């Protein structure tokens, strides 16, 4: 592989590339500083006035994955540097990062994959379709192979628009389906968003991202709003930088199409990782600077809270009066006729998904009842309850639930309302389904535990049945509330950006004059652009609430009316023990959990057992037909070397670093780290003058 830049010209200089990142972060920083004061004010106002929130019937546990790991096992991974499929031991901890090791016996992690922004593909056809868009002006043919030859028909690819792709292969379809479910859960978890518990930093960041993108003309949902803040900011930078650099570098890549696609992927990955490193530092500096001002801001608006609210209401009324006629026209002609059909498109697959959650839970509880009755009453509860307690985090058992929601399609509405894909709504619904499943299981655990005191086998069976009925009824109530909130939020995410796109350009020039109505001391807490959005938000909320209430009255999707309260609510349910129950030690005769460094981390998904197939010994390579042979290490010699090393335990794996910045092993092969390495990927061109290093934000 070889690359060289000649003279790119002054417009493509090193300073220009760094200037792009600097410009994005400076613009974002200005928006962030403004939105921080607004979010802090809203948080304190919410704290003082209180917010209306429905009472959940189910309990919620704070750390469901304590002392747990998701999955581990062997599969084959494609190595870029020698074009071999190498057996790797994969470990998925409670962080949902994918760690892989040379084999099960070594302690040192080879690398860690953070799955935010990735897609999991299970066929070469899917991968080629996405790969065909990686370089402008070139397309992969259906019969073309990319830069790897599959070791088996059962392929798994982690694809990312900017980062490097990861290729895995397994030996059977059963293995493929299980690993597919696990990897999809890793992506789902990584994409689930920033912590909602932080009522200041999270809305500050999300509103700043949204307003920045709206300033660039992007009003709709954004698929790359995933991962932590640094990664989201890197996606924001790459959104424009990627296209610019692709048009610059792409035509200079030489070789066959698969080789050019591979080289561009490695260059993009190197840029992306360096951009993440920059955004991480700069975002931390932004937060630190904002938090320094927090005490003074807090004191300022607590003193004048009533006056600030009154001033904001005055500005709100003036802006609404200005845009009332046109706002009502857009609502009447372009929004209201579509709300019912939009709601129906959302309700059908999401409700089916929540029904499936209930069915899966019901089947598991029925099995528990039967096994308890047949296997010996309370003594059999240990192993059965240990399995049940992690049901929500079992990606294979939950897969049927997730698949129902994946049928969600907003076709016909996507173009009108500027929705790139329904994945934002699909993944949000899936996360809510998992939360409701875990809440139901945890509530069942607590209800059952408080009722089991020296009961006979038949009594235990009846107790299980009673707790089952109570939990399912509570699940139905909470499921209805969660779905209604989801429908409201989803409709707002669809409609409000569309209305902003229709209305904001018409009134943008008039908004600055409303700043004159705001006292200078209040100007940091009242932004006319935010008030403009609130006017639109409140206007459309009324129609959305009406549509959701009408759907609840029809009872087509088992939605409860807002006024409905369960007759058998348990007022003392929240007083139950909040600590996790160690069923194995209390009822199953097991050792239970041990604390400290030597505790074992129980695995949620069972290992894959293949009939007639033994494990691949010590990470040997699979030969790839048509690829130049590379001498292999002696299996016996490798085994002897491994035996000299101490065995790794599940606890050791759990304590391994789980972020790429903590990685101790050599870098993932193939991705260039500097301009000099990138120059090895592009063939030489005629030298027109002295070379200038162009870092592409890599130095």
From TrEMBL:
Annotated stretches, region: Disordered: 647-676
InterPro entries hit by this protein: Niban-like, Niban_1/2/3_dom, PH-like_dom_sf, PH_domain
Highest taxon above the source species: Eukaryota
Domain PH: 68-188
TM region(s), chain numbering: none
Gene3D superfamilies cross-referenced by the UniProt entry: Pleckstrin-homology domain (PH domain)/Phosphotyrosine-binding domain (PTB)
Family listed: Belongs to the Niban family.
Listed name of the protein: PH domain-containing protein
Species whose genome carries this gene: Electrophorus electricus
Gene: niban2a
């Amino acid at each position: 592989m070889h690359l060289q830049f000649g003279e790119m010209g002054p417009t493509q200089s090193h300073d220009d590339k760094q200037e792009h990142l600097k410009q994005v972060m400076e613009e974002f920083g200005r928006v962030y500083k403004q939105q921080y004061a607004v979010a802090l004010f809203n948080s304190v106002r919410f704290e003082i006035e209180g917010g209306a929130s429905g009472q959940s019937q189910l309990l919620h546990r704070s750390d469901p994955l304590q002392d747990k790991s998701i999955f581990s096992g062997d599969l084959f991974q494609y190595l870029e540097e020698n074009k071999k499929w190498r057996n790797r031991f994969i470990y998925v901890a409670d962080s949902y990062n994918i760690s892989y090791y040379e084999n099960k016996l070594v302690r040192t992690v080879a690398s860690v994959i953070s799955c935010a922004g990735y897609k999991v593909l299970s066929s070469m056809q899917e991968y080629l379709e996405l790969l065909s868009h990686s370089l402008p002006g070139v397309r992969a043919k259906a019969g073309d192979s990319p830069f790897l030859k599959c070791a088996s028909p059962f392929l798994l690819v982690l694809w990312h628009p900017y980062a490097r792709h990861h290729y895995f292969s397994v030996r059977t379809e059963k293995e493929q389906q299980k690993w597919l479910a696990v990897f999809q859960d890793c992506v789902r978890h990584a994409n689930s968003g920033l912590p909602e518990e932080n009522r200041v930093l999270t809305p500050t960041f999300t509103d700043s991202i949204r307003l920045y993108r709206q300033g660039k003309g992007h009003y709709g949902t954004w698929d790359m709003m995933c991962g932590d803040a640094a990664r989201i900011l890197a996606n924001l930078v790459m959104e424009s930088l990627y296209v610019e650099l692709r048009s610059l570098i792409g035509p200079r890549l030489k070789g066959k199409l698969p080789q050019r696609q591979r080289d561009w992927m490695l260059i993009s990955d190197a840029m992306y990782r360096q951009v993440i490193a920059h955004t991480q530092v700069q975002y931390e500096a932004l937060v630190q600077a904002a938090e320094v001002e927090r005490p003074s801001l807090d004191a300022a608006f607590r003193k004048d809270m009533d006056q600030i609210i009154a001033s904001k209401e005055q500005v709100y009324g003036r802006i609404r009066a200005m845009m009332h006629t046109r706002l009502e026209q857009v609502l009447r002609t372009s929004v209201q006729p579509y709300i019912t059909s939009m709601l129906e498109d959302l309700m059908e697959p999401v409700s089916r998904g929540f029904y499936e959650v209930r069915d899966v839970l019901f089947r598991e509880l029925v099995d528990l009842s039967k096994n308890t009755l047949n296997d010996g009453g309370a003594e059999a509860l240990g192993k059965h309850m240990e399995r049940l307690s992690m049901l929500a985090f079992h990606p294979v058992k939950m897969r049927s639930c997730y698949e129902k929601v994946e049928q969600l399609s907003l076709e016909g509405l996507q173009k009108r309302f500027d929705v790139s894909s329904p994945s934002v709504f699909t993944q949000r619904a899936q996360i809510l389904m998992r939360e409701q499943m875990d809440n139901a299981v945890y509530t069942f655990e607590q209800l059952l535990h408080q009722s089991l005191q020296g009961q006979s086998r038949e009594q235990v069976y009846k107790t299980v049945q009673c707790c089952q009925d109570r939990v399912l009824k509570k699940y139905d109530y909470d499921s209805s509330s969660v779905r209604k909130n989801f429908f409201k939020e989803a409709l707002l995410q669809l409609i409000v950006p569309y209305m902003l796109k229709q209305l904001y350009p018409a009134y943008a020039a008039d908004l600055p004059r409303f700043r004159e109505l705001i006292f200078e001391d209040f100007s940091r807490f009242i932004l006319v652009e935010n008030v403009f959005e609130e006017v639109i938000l409140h206007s459309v909320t009324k129609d959305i609430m009406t549509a959701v209430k009408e759907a609840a009255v029809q009872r087509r999707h088992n939605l409860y009316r807002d006024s409905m309260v369960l007759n058998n609510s348990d007022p003392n349910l929240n007083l139950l023990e909040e600590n996790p129950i160690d069923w194995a030690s209390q009822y199953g005769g097991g050792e239970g959990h041990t604390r400290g460094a030597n505790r074992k981390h129980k695995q949620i998904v069972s290992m894959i057992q293949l009939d007639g197939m033994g494990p691949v010994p010590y990470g040997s390579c699979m030969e790839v037909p048509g690829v130049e042979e590379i001498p292999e290490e002696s299996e016996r010699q490798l085994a002897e070397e491994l035996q000299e090393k101490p065995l790794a335990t599940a606890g050791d794996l759990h304590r391994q670093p789980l972020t790429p910045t903590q990685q101790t092993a050599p870098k993932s092969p193939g991705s260039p780290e500097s301009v000099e390495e990138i120059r090895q990927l592009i063939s030489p061109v005629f030298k027109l003058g002295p070379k200038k290093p162009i870092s592409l934000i890599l130095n």
